[in-house]
Write a sequence for this structure.
């Protein structure tokens, strides 16, 4: 491999940087769901006041999918090869879901306001309404895009990560007999052996 090829290849993220590029946008996005994403008025006679819809009400799935991203990140950092492969797919799909939901609210504020009024009036059909997107929802779109990029980079980088250290794994299995059965200390004593000598340190 030449020097030019090695410099062109992007460096994989370590676990610390991966946590930053996922957790920071996730925290910001959760905070933005408490802000007003759409504002408008209903033309219904029962509700003609100005309606303000927060991000959590406009797209409740964003909170859940963001939490899924955090859980998947934990699986990528601590799991084995199979768990990391599954968590990589989950974190990418969940982050793309948050981006799609926030973008949908930003592009259709009228429908967001109408749906909010319908829920307020306990109606099955949304009334006619006017609406406009706020700056908060566009900020959420940008943050969701950053979360999707961070999730993708984390998923790709996780292929070079290791799971938990060996101290969390189980110890060595007992020796097996000629037919594959597990031999115990009692079996060795029955045959006249001394299992304490097996574990004793070698004398020089």
């Amino acid at each position: 491999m030449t020097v030019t090829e090695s410099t062109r290849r992007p460096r994989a993220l370590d676990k610390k940087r991966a946590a930053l590029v996922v957790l920071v946008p996730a925290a910001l996005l959760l905070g933005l769901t408490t802000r007003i994403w759409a504002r408008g008025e209903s033309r219904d006679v029962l509700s003609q006041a100005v309606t303000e819809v927060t991000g959590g009400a406009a797209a409740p799935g964003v909170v859940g999918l963001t939490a899924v991203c955090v859980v998947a990140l934990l699986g990528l950092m601590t799991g084995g090869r199979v768990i990391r492969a599954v968590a990589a797919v989950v974190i990418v799909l969940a982050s793309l879901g948050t981006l799609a939901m926030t973008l949908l609210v930003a592009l259709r504020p009228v429908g967001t306001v109408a749906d909010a009024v319908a829920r307020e009036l306990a109606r099955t059909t949304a009334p006619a309404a006017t609406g406009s997107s706020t700056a908060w929802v566009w900020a959420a779109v940008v943050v969701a895009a950053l979360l999707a990029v961070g999730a993708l980079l984390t998923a790709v980088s996780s292929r070079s990560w290791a799971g938990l250290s060996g101290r969390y794994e189980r110890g060595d299995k007992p020796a097996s007999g000629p037919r594959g059965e597990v031999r115990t200390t009692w079996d060795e004593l029955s045959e006249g052996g001394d299992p304490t000598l097996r574990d004793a340190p070698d004398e020089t």
In short: The chain has a mean pLDDT of 80. Residues 72 and 87 are 5 Å apart (CA to CA). The beta strands are 36-42, 50-54, 129-133. The radius of gyration is 28 Å.
